[in-house]
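User: Can you recover a sequence for this backbone? Please restate the input before giving your answer.

Assistant: Of course. Working from this structure:
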């Protein structure tokens, strides 16, 4: 890791990742992994593999027993991780081990943060070299405490815009997002079985670009290289979670790493833009 990267804030590292992708004529590829799935040692190897295979930013989920936004694939991964003893501390240790590989953004829920302690969590993110966190179950009006802890530490706080979000509220969410705005491509929880609604996304992106200068990344249901291509033609990045976990589910060690790396290479190849976004 360069000295400049070591001193950059989490917000700056996320911004640099999107800027570098844009300068290369493509969108950012953002895979999601669940910390501790299928086990902690394989999880560390998976982070290294997906970083080397074409990831610009990595979302690292902290496993939680009541994951409201997670579909069956991610929920099952979280349960495997919890059964294996993964904690917030061990998830952050994984993030620290990957800090030199790619910007790492944690994905968690508010209850674990409260139990851990908000200020303590923010300090732990900085200590681990994580760039911030996505906390999908906190509505815009209740993000004040997280912002107050994250902002002085330079931590990113991307917020989610769903298909059901009214346009004016979506504009406000985009203005409040720090790092990027997370566009949910379709109704429901995460998962790879239903097609993203690219028509809705294109219309929403066009409006949100006028509301905020932050990058826009599309997630939920992005599961093929074609999905990634279409997402990056519209927005600034594509997020892939369930499909990646499915690619190595049921395996551990070198086989899990091989499958995850191959799938990441396949999907990240879809990031070159086919038209200006």
């Amino acid at each position: 890791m360069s000295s400049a990267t070591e001193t950059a804030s989490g917000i700056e590292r996320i911004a640099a990742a999107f800027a570098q992708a844009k300068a290369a004529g493509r969108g950012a590829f953002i895979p999601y992994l669940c910390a501790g799935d299928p086990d902690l040692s394989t999880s560390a190897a998976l982070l290294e593999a997906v970083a080397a295979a074409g990831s610009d930013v990595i979302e690292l989920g902290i496993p939680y027993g009541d994951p409201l936004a997670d579909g069956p694939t991610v929920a099952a991964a979280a349960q495997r991780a919890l059964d294996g003893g993964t904690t917030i501390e061990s998830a952050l240790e994984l993030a620290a081990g990957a800090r030199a590989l790619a910007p790492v953004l944690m994905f968690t829920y508010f209850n674990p943060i409260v139990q851990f302690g908000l200020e303590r969590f923010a300090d732990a993110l900085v200590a681990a070299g994580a760039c911030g966190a996505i906390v999908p179950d906190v509505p815009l009006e209740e993000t004040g405490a997280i912002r107050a802890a994250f902002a002085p530490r330079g931590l990113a706080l991307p917020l989610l815009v769903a298909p059901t979000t009214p346009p004016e509220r979506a504009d406000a969410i985009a203005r409040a997002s720090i790092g990027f705005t997370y566009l949910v491509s379709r109704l429901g929880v995460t998962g790879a079985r239903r097609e993203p609604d690219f028509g809705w996304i294109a219309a929403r992106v066009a409006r949100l670009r006028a509301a905020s200068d932050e990058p826009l990344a599309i997630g939920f249901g992005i599961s093929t290289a074609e999905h990634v291509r279409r997402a990056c033609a519209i927005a600034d990045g594509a997020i892939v979670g369930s499909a990646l976990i499915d690619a190595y589910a049921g395996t551990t060690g070198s086989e899990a790493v091989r499958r995850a790396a191959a799938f990441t290479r396949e999907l990240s190849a879809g990031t070159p833009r086919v038209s200006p976004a």
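That completes the design. The longest strand covers residues 28-34.
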